[in-house]
Every structure is written in C-alpha cells, then in structure tokens.
Amino acid sequence: MKKSFASSLLSRGYNVHVYNRTKEKTQSLIEKGAVFHSTSRDPALVADLVMTSLTFLFFTVFLPF
C-alpha cells in the first residue's frame, strides 16, 4: 500500500498502524498520526482489518475498529 493511501485514511480519521523493517520509511505517516510497530505480528493483534501491498512491499497498514 502506498503512503498516499495510508495518508488518506489518516486524514479521514482512521487509526492506522504501520510496519516496515525500516522505521524511517514510515516516518511521514508516523508524523501524521500512524502508530509504528517493530514487528508485523504486533499490529495484527489489535486490528480487525489488515491491508497490505505486495506490489511495492513498502509497509502494511492495520486498521483497528
């Protein structure tokens, strides 16, 4: 999932949890309110919906409801 999609979710008030092996790559989303997790398992534990992009393995977005 691209940053623009996650940014759009954040701007609409959704809780977005992100994971990437390199935290710096998610820094702009963290600054907008995303919650960073250091493992891919952690955000999945708090999410009802998990979205990921396999085309560009950039980061995974987790939306807790």
From TrEMBL:
Q: Which UniProt keywords apply?
A: Membrane, Transmembrane, Transmembrane helix
Q: Lineage of this protein's species?
A: Archaea, Methanobacteriati, Methanobacteriota, Stenosarchaea group, Methanomicrobia
The record lists the membrane-crossing segments as: 44-63
- GO MF: NADP binding
Query: Has keyword Transmembrane helix?
Result: yes
Q: Where is the 6-phosphogluconate dehydrogenase NADP-binding domain?
A: 2-54
Protein name, entry field: 3-hydroxyisobutyrate dehydrogenase and related beta-hydroxyacid dehydrogenase
Q: Which InterPro entries match?
A: 6PGDH_NADP-bd, NAD(P)-bd_dom_sf
- Superkingdom is Archaea
Pfam families in alphabetical order: NAD_binding_2
